[in-house]
Amino acid sequence: MTIIADSLQEIQVKIHTALRSANRQDTLQLLAVSKAQTADKLREAYLSGQRLFGENYLQEAICKQEQLADLNIEWHFIGPIQSNKTQLIAQHFDWVHSVDRLKIAQRLSDARPSKLAPLNICIQINSSFEDTKSGADLAEVTTLATAINQLPNLKLRGLMSIPAPASDYDKQRAQFKIVSDTFNSLKRQGFIIDTLSIGMSNDYVAAIHEGATIIRIGSALFGERKVSTT
């Protein structure tokens, strides 16, 4: 087995252990955060069974998509979105996790090609209440979700958040609980959503205990990455 295959197997074991500990019978998806990783590493992960890949940098992602066009990869965009990049994101991705304002959602819907299925959308919320963090304010989530549901080429799937780093497990769970409570509130209001995209390499066990359905794993799978700004 390769190093990536070994890491993937180790992560899956930890996921299953956490699911059992949380008394969860549902499924959980692993999203491989592949920013700054080579196409060869993505291919290696794919051959080890990984199918979902998340990218932060648009041009880097498109280059890798071209190199890996022979693989049946589900591509997720998980980085901040600039207005001038919405057209290419809408054309090249299956999911977008980082929608935090209506303007971006409208541009994605307008740019989504009719030959493709509706673009799956997660609303990114600012669960740590930091001014420097991306994400919609909690008070805006219901209004934004309602507006996204009315856009013809998007499908609202749920919420995403990147909380402030915390090494303490209880603090990690407390931050994720804010997101899961908001998610459950939307469901009670009648929104048909199924995705809670929370948890990364250092805190995914806590996220699983708070109901994560997608965890975003980079360094634990690929190792520490080089900095990329593409």
Describe this structure in words.
It contains nine helices and eight strands. The protein is globular, with a radius of gyration of 17 Å. The mean pLDDT is 94.
Helical content, roughly?
Answer: 40-55%
Number of DSSP helical runs: 9
- Radius of gyration equals 17 Å
Find the CATH superfamily.
Alanine racemase
Query: Can you summarize the main beta sheet?
Result: 8 strands, parallel
Question: CATH architecture, please?
Answer: Alpha-Beta Barrel
The class by helix and strand makeup works out as: alpha/beta
H-E order:
HEHEHEHEHEHEHEHEH
Oligomeric form: single chain
The tally of structural domains comes to 1
DSSP strand content: 15-25%
Q: Quote the CATH topology.
A: TIM Barrel
Distance between the termini: 31 Å
CATH class: Alpha Beta
Average pLDDT reading: 94
Strand order of the biggest β-sheet? 7-6-5-4-3-2-1-8
Offer a concise description of the structure.
The chain is of the alpha/beta class and 230 residues long. It is 41% helix and 17% strand.
SSE order and pairing:
Elements: H1 3-21, E1 29-33, H2 39-47, E2 52-55, H3 58-67, E3 74-77, H4 86-92, E4 95-99, H5 102-111, E5 119-124, H6 141-149, E6 154-160, H7 169-188, E7 195-197, H8 204-209, E8 214-217, H9 219-222
Parallel strand pairs: 1-2, 1-8, 2-3, 3-4, 4-5, 5-6, 6-7
